[in-house]
Structure formats: C-alpha cells, structure tokens
Amino acid sequence: MSNSINKLITIERHIAENEAVYNEATGEFSRLLRDLTLAMRVISREVRRAGLNDILGETEKENVHGEQVKKLDEFAHNIVRRAMNHGGHLCAMASEEADGIIPIPDVYECGKYVLLFDPLDGSSNIEVNVSIGTIFSVYQRIDADATTPGKMNDLLQPGFKQVAAGYCLYGSCTNLVYTTGAGVNIFTFDPTLGEFFLTKENHRMPEFSPQYSINEGYYNRWDESIRKFVNYAKSEDDNKSAYGLRYIGTAVADIHRILLHGGLFLYPADTKNPEGKLRLLYELNPLGMLVEQAGGLATDGSQRILEIQPETIHQRRPVFMGSKDNVNEVLKFLS
Ligand code: AHG
Ligand code: MN
Ligand code: MN
Predict the structure, then answer these.
(1) Ligand 1 centroid vs 249 CA: distance in angstroms?
(2) Which residue ranges form the domains of the chain, and what is each CATH number?
(3) How many C-beta atoms surround the C-beta of residue 105 within 10 A?
(4) What's the whole-number mean pLDDT along residues 96-118?
(5) Measuring from each residue's beta carbon to the nearest atom of ligand 1, which residues come in under 6 Å?
(6) Fewer CB atoms inside 10 A, N or C side of the chain?
C-alpha cells in the first residue's frame, strides 16, 4: 500500500479536494461524482442482501442485446438513473440496459455532462455469489454552454474525451476505483459507516505479469493469431514458464485483478461475435481509461480503444488490455 494508508480520507473529501485541480471549480463535477457514489452505496447494500430481498432471478424482459434482464440489472439501472437525473449536472445518459438516450426529465435542469454506464457488469455471476460491478464513464457535452437536453452526438464521443471513469466492484469487499485523468484512486467501502475510504492513491499497475484472462472455451471460434498467442502463453521451456490463467467472467473483476497484479485481458472477435462481446461505451472506454491511467494499454488489435470514434451507443469491439508489456506481446501475434 502507498503512503495514503496514513491518510484517513473519505471519497467525498477526496473529490472536493481534487476538484480545483481538474475542473473550473463550479462544484458541478464534484456533485456529479458525489451523486454517483450514492448510487453505488445503494447498489452495494442491495447486492449484499441479494439472497434475502427477492432480487435474484430474471425479469420477463430482454435487453437491447437480446440478453435476459436480471432483476438486479434492472434495479441497478434504475438506482443510477434516479440518483443522477435531477442533480442539474447531466444533460443525457445512456445505459447498457436502455435502448436509446435516457433523457433528463423536463422538470429538472440540464447541465454540461453526459453519463454512460453498465449498471451491473457480470450478470451471469449474480446468482452464484461471484464479484459483479457497476461501470461508469463521464464526458462533457459537445457544447458546454448549452442548457438544452443532450443529443446522441454528446454520447458518441471517443474515449480519450472522458473527463472521469470508474467502477464500483462488489466483491469480497466493495471497492470504488476512479480516475479524472490525473491517476487512479482506489477506495474501500466501510459498510458500518456507509463511507468509501481512500486505500490507494495514484495506483500504478505492474508493467508485466505472466497471467492471461480469456474465455478459452471459445478457442475453436478464434482467429489463428489468437490461438497462437494462447498456445504461446501456455508453452513452457527453459526461458519461460506457462502463464497463469484467471477468468472470472465479470470484465470489471478481471480488470480489477489485472490493475492490481498485472497481466492481460482478452475478449477477441470470434465466429459468433465478429465484433467481440464487450461494449465500447459502457465497458471498454471506462476500463481502458483506468488501465491507461495506471500505466497500461488498451487496444482492439489495430487501434487504441480510446481513439475509436463510436457510431452507435451499444456497439461492441474486440479488446486486448492490461499491463504494457503484456499488450505489446500479444500485438506481435496479431500483426
Ligand atoms: P454484462 O453482465 O454487463 O452483460 O457483461 C458480461 C460480460 C463481461 O462482464 C464478461 O467479461 C463477459 O460478459 C463474459 O462473457 P463470456 O461468458 O462470453 O466469457
Ligand atoms: Mn457488462
Ligand atoms: Mn451489465
């Protein structure tokens, strides 16, 4: 742990103290982040009681991706929406669990930011007590002075324009990890106090680790270059040991492990998912910004994730992200 272990500081205090550094100090951005942490607190509470509060299981609905919506997905989506739509800091939202733009209701003011989020990442793990998380991404709207409702082009910005990104991971403890473009900070939730405390400031990830993370069950659906890389990862000789394989199946949990311990996360294109599976706006851009801010790399194999110009809010993309040297290594197989 870094020097920050000595400093007893809550996330609200941290946001307020840092606001002047990265914003023109209107307070709007701080309020936005504070409202988001409220949503995370509520979702965390509900996740912790998931087996007790009739919230496990599926709804009757399918989402825009054709996946069965779990009750907890829908619950988390509505908590974020309700925490964020009335603060006056957003002009539009988009969520993995909603078809189009989520407008700000007419009765509330529109502000200069947009929010994109994956309310619960790792749905397939909800019922088996494995880590799940909420991922978020914040941009300034294109015309920062406008007070009108946000439009689609405000949501379709490349990831390098994010002004904040982060996630809340509901694991063996609850961690909130965020960046505003000035390093990665990690907070841990104390459920008895209802507060997130800073536990790691300006976190840097290892430059290399002999670990990879991929759903290897799809081996026969991959391009030859991915198979060659995975064969290499498993190979052993006098100069190299086999890499360890870790795959949780919750992208945010796999990336959290890689942020802390290093390694490579892959979700390549395959014959069933020609664009990969993960969503550019709700998963790859925010996770990519965090990984880059911690010293790592995020690419789709030919382009930096954060430079992709999105065309639709729900689009998917192949991804290779993690420690710098791990990403450069897999890129040699892809070229
Ligand atoms: P979500 O639950 O938000 O739909 O995302 C699930 C994603 C991601 O978290 C994970 O990395 C991936 O699905 C796992 O997919 P496979 O089951 O195909 O490995
Ligand atoms: Mn997801
Ligand atoms: Mn989701």
Answers:
(1) 6
(2) 3-203 (3.30.540.10), 211-334 (3.40.190.80)
(3) 8
(4) 97
(5) 67, 96, 118, 121-123, 215, 249-251, 277
(6) C
